[in-house]
Each structure stands twice: as structure tokens, then as C-alpha cells.
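Sample pair:
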Amino acid sequence: MLEAALVQLERVVADLLQQNQSLRETSAMLEQQLQQAREENDNLQLAALEQEEKQGAALARLQSLIERAAAGNAA
């Protein structure tokens, strides 16, 4: 009876160790994917800020042109 219990316990421990290894591998893969997602997010935020700056500059130029045109019509 003791021998059977020990064999069963050895199997359970072996299964747990295998599951633990599998979980560690999954965790490492998920951490890598998370890092990639963070980097992509940072790049997208930077691109959005650059686009915002370009749009602001274009808007300022358009406003300037409108003001010049309005001043030309008033004169």
C-alpha cells in the first residue's frame, strides 16, 4: 500500500513539474509578446504625436493664408 502511494505521489509530482515547466514557457512567451506590444504602442503614440504636429503646422499655414487673403480683399 505504501509503495502504491509513493508511485502515485511520484506521478503527481512529475505531472506538476511538467505543468510548471509548460507554464513557465507560456509565461516567457507572453512576456515577450507583451514587450512587443508595448514597443508597438510606443511607436504608434510617437507617430500620432508627429502627425498631430504636422496637422498643427498645416493648420497654422492655412490660417495665415486665409488672413493674408482677407487682408488683401480688405485693401
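Residues 37 and 45 are 12 Å apart (CA to CA).
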